[in-house]
Structures are given as C-alpha cells and as structure tokens.
Design brief:
Blueprint lengths: L1 E4 L5 E2 L14 E4 L19 E6 L2 E7 L9 H14 L4 E5 L3 H13 L2 E7 L4 H9 L3 E5 L3 H10 L5 E2 L6 H7 L1 H9 L7 E5 L4 H13 L4 E7 L4 H6 L23 H10 L3 E5 L1 H13 L6 H13 L10 E5 L7
Parallel strand pairs: 5-13, 6-7, 6-9, 7-8, 10-11, 10-13, 11-12
Antiparallel strand pairs: 1-2, 1-3, 4-5
Helix pairs in contact: 1-2, 1-5, 2-3, 5-7, 6-7, 10-11
The chain binds zinc ion.
Keywords: Lyase, Pyridoxal phosphate
Organism: Selenomonas caprae
Pfam families: PALP
Length: 331
Amino acid sequence: MYFYCEKCKKQYPLNSHSYMCECGGMFRLHKDTDDEPVHEISLGEFQTPLLPFRDGKLEFLLKLENLLPTGSFKDRGAYTLINEIHHLGVKKIALDSAGNAGAAIAAYAAAAGMECTVYVPDDVSNELVTQIEAYGAKIIKVANGRMKACAAVKQNLGDAYYASHVYNPLFFEGMKSIAKEMYEQLGGHVPDYIFVPVGNGTLLIGLFLGFMEIGRLPHFVAVQSRKCAPLYDAYHGLPEQPKKTTIAEAIRIERPKRLDWMIEAIKASNGDVVTIEDCEILRAKKHLAHCGIYVEMTSAAALAGAEKFFQSGKPDNYRVVVPLTGNGLKR
Ligand SMILES: [Zn+2]
C-alpha cells in the first residue's frame, strides 16, 4: 500500500511526513490485492445494528454508529489509520478535529501507546474535550473556528505524524466497513438510499469507496445545514453563500478539502444534496430521544434530511438507511 497524489500521481509511503503532494494535490490510497490490513489494536469493534424505525408514515433503517467504542462512526477510520501507522512504527501523532474524530483517534492512539495532540476549535463542547483528554491526549484550543485549527496543526506538526481524518486516506479506507456491514445486514442487497450528514465528507466518501468495491451504489443524499452548505452550493452550481454557525457542529465545515470527491460520489450514485434548518434538526433530535435514541445534532440532521426528502411519501419497498453518527452524551 502507498499514497499517491490525486493530481500528478506521485507516490508517497504511508508513514510519510508529507500529508499532501508537493504539487498541492491530495493523497489517495493505492492497495494491491495481496495487501493485508493490520488488526493489532482493538477497542472491541462490532457490527452496529440496523434498526427499523417508524417515523410517522415513513420507515427508515437506523444504522446505530452512536454505539461504537468512543460513541461515533469515526471509530471505523481511527481503527484502520492507527493500526496501519502503529505497525509502521509511528509513535507521535497530531490532528485537528471538531470533536468526534479527535476522540476516536485519541482513544485508538491510547490503545497503541502513541503520543497524541488534538487541535480543536475553542467552541467545541466541553464533553468532547473531557473525553479526548481522558484518553491522555493533549488538547490545544484554537480561536476562530475549524479552519484555523487545521492551519494551526499543520504549522506546528514538528516530528508528529499528521493523523488527519480528512487528509489521510487510511481513515477513508477504514470507513468502508460501514458499507460492507449494511450489505451483509440486508442479505446481500444494497440500500436504495442513504442519507449522509456532510461536513468534511468522511462518511460519504467512505460509503462511496465501500459500495464501489461491492459493485453497486445506493443513491447518496447528502444533508447539510442551510447555515453552512458548501457542498449544496457547489453541487447545485449556486454562488457561494456566507457561512454561519449551526447547532450541528460536526458538519460545520466551511471549505471542505474533499469537495470534488464528494460531488463525484453524489453524481455517480444519482444522488442529491439537501439542506435543512436548525429547527428541523432540533425537532428530529427530540423525536429520536422520545423514541429512546439519544444522538448528537448531526445524526438528527440526517433524519431531518430524510424526512424532508420523502415528505410526500416513499415507496414501501425502498430500503432507506439513516446512519446515526454520534452519541448524544458528547455534545
Ligand atoms: Zn502531485
């Protein structure tokens, strides 16, 4: 396995100190058929349930990613990333995160005995900071938002490996397992629709890669907050709108680095991008909680997007999956 530049195809080793190509291109992962994934570090990963959920006249399948070891879907990417780089001898990592990725990578780094520093925007929830610090990681709070945290970690990397869930393709490689699980759980069927909350696009791109390997794509419908919707604007060819703060902090990404890849995934799947209001997110979160499911705002955003998309009804035979990305106790 090695990284290669998505623009000029130059190759880099997986433990390279470079996190993008010298030409400015982002990395992708090259895998040979005989490349065996490493499984040395584990926190007890398992296949998350696909729970049927009646929502008024609609029925969805909730993929309960909130139940994973650190409470979010990001554990899938962290598992693969940390396993591979630990195997290659990396001892010290740094990353930037709005919270879930920071917690997931800090936990797996702890299990691997790595030193870990997480740069977070200074308005990230206290619960997430507490969780990341509990794993023994160092927290550095950065003022003025998520993009500033990303700039700060890159400037101050020193001898640390940049274990980014956005730049590092090993993270996306780990995310693919969610597609394979759904396929198995549906008895060898691909869902008809998956509603994916989108910030940096980790879940969307992971699903895209996973279903590409399976050989058939569901329709991916990306869900963004109306207050911060760069993918919606780019996909629909709209002028860029000013970005505002949304309650769904995990999808509050103003300039996602993998925007082109996300658009490719939506187009290839004959999908769509929808936006929702904060009040719709809150209503969906409350509704889930009243049914016994306590999730973060971003998970509720996915359900709100599905409700809006199918507001005039949905054929009963459609298998529609709504991943619940994270636990409600964290935010
Ligand atoms: Zn390049």
